[in-house]
Write a structure and sequence with these properties.
Layout lengths: L1 H31 L7 E2 L5 E2 L5 E2 L3 E5 L6 H8 L2 E3 L5 E4 L2 E2 L6 E7 L2 E2 L14 E8 L1
Antiparallel strand pairs: 1-2, 3-4, 4-10, 5-6, 6-7, 8-9, 8-10
Length: about 140
C-alpha cells in the first residue's frame, strides 16, 4: 500500500513537471520568440530583409547604399588605416601583416573588386566585404 502511494506521488510529480515544460514551451513560443518584423524596401518597393554590418577581426561586411562609395561606408562603420597609395592597410586596428603576405581584399557581391573602394559607387542591395587574405 505504501509503495503504491509512493509510485502514485512520483507519477503525479512527473506528469506535473511534464505539463509545466509543455506550458513553458508554448509561452516561450508565443511571447518571447516573437520578434517584430523589420523590413526595408528596395527601389521597386519590394520588401527586403535588412542586411546587418558584420565586423570581425579579419572580416568586415556591410550593405551598400546608393550614392555612397565603398570607402565612405567603410569609414562610417570602422576606423581605417591607409597607406600613401590609398590602399587599406588596417581596419579597426587589425593591420595586414606584410611579413605574413597579408592584405585586406575588397569584394563586391561576393566577387573580388576590379576597382578601388573610393571608385566603387555602391547601390542598395550590394554586399561589400573586406577579408584578410594572403598573396
Amino acid at each position: 500500500m505504501k509503495e503504491e502511494k509512493r509510485t502514485t506521488q512520483f507519477a503525479n510529480i512527473f506528469i506535473g513537471f511534464f505539463v509545466l515544460i509543455i506550458i513553458g514551451y508554448f509561452l516561450y513560443g508565443f511571447f518571447i520568440s516573437r520578434k517584430p518584423a523589420i523590413s526595408t524596401f528596395d527601389v521597386s518597393g519590394k520588401a527586403v530583409s535588412p542586411t546587418p554590418t558584420i565586423i570581425l577581426t579579419d572580416y568586415v561586411s556591410y550593405p551598400g547604399k546608393t550614392g555612397k562609395t565603398a570607402l565612405e561606408l567603410l569609414k562610417e562603420k570602422a576606423s581605417i588605416e591607409q597607406v600613401t597609395s590609398g590602399l587599406i592597410n588596417g581596419i579597426n586596428g587589425r593591420k595586414a601583416d606584410a611579413s605574413q603576405h597579408e592584405y585586406w581584399a575588397f569584394y563586391i557581391n561576393g566577387k573580388l573588386a576590379q576597382v578601388g573602394p573610393v571608385e566603387y559607387q555602391t547601390k542598395d542591395g550590394d554586399m561589400i566585404e573586406w577579408k584578410i587574405e594572403k598573396y
